[in-house]
Each structure stands twice: as C-alpha cells, then as structure tokens.
Amino acid sequence: MKILMVCLGNICRSPLAEGIMKTKVPENFVVDSAGTISLHEGEHPDKRAVKTAANHNIDISRQKSRPIKRIDFENFDRIYCMDISVFEDVISKAKNEEERQKISLFLEELGGDKNVEVPDPYWGGMKDFEEVFQLLDKGCDAIKKQIIT
Ligand code: 4NP
Q1: How far is the CA of 5 from the centre of ligand 1 (A)?
Q2: Is pLDDT above 90 for 112?
Q3: Looking at the keywords, is Glycoprotein present (predicted)?
C-alpha cells in the first residue's frame, strides 16, 4: 500500500501527516508527502512542524518539500488532500477515472458532518500546530482502520 499526503506547501500539514502515518502502518507500507506548489521545494519542514512532531517523539526533520508530480498518480494507491482547494487542484491533474478514484479529502475518513479541512497552521502559532497534529492523528487512525482490514 502506497499513501501520499498532500497539502499546499509540503512544509506544515502533509509532512506531519506523513510522519504520524508512518508510526501507525506496517514497515512495508510506503508513506510520502507532497505539495501543490513548488515554492518550498527542497526545504525541510517548517521548524514549528518539526518541533510539534518532536514533542510527540516523531522525527520529521529530514523530510524535504517537493511538488506533486505526474508519476505520483500512477505510483500511489491513495492520495489524501488536506483541504478542499488542494483536493480540487489535485483532482484537476488526474488524467482518468482510475487516478481520480485514488484521491480524497484526508478528513473525510473521519465521517460525520465534521469539518473536512485541516486548517493551515502556517500563519498561526505553536498552538495551531498542536491542534493540527491532534486532528491529523485522528485522521490517520481513521485511514488506518479503513485501509487495514
Ligand atoms: P502547508 O502550509 O500547505 O501545510 O505546508 C503552507 C506552507 C507555505 C505556504 C502556505 C501554506 N506559503 O504560502 O508559502
């Protein structure tokens, strides 16, 4: 199973989602992350994301930002998007129904009528990063339940 987490810059939300998910799935699973923009390409995650993960004993410091690319739509089995605008951007890049089927909103797996967007903590503070971590942790648990039967 190959899972790709996608946000806008690939320096805050999706690196955290990648780091959290890796702690929850078997070692033969591939978990990666990407952004829809290449502004931060090659950069490590935002220091606040690194610190928040470290507070939970997860090391995301060696990850590097990269934009989503065409081959990802073929290589990955599931592509989880952090918010609606990311979802719309990613789905517009899919070239057929098989690829579109792989793409969903990350928080949709939680079900219910809860907000389906992971808020962008980039303009916020450490408290926002911790709240995003908790949301991502719940979402990763829901995804794990859904994909590991
Ligand atoms: P992310 O957060 O999508 O969770 O990585 C952002 C990072 C950078 C920017 C926006 C959001 N930016 O505009 O540079």
Answers
A1: 14
A2: no
A3: no
Please say if the pLDDT value at position 19 is more than 80.
yes
* Residue 109 pLDDT class (50, 70, 90 cuts): confident
The verdict on whether 7 is a catalytic residue reads yes
Q: Is 7 in the pocket of ligand 1 (CB under 6 A)?
A: yes
Active site residue 13: yes
Residue type, 146: Q
pLDDT at 113: 67
Q: Please state the domain count of the chain.
A: 1
- CA 35 to ligand 1 centroid distance, Å: 8
- Residue 138: CATH number of its domain: 3.40.50.2300
Mean pLDDT of 18-42: 97
**Angle made by CA atoms 55, 79, 45, in degrees to the nearest 5:** 35
Residues spanned by the domain of 143: 2-147
CA 106/CA 141 separation, integer angstroms? 11
- Measured from the CB, is residue 12 less than 6 Å from ligand 1? yes
CB distance 5 to 90 below 8 Å: no
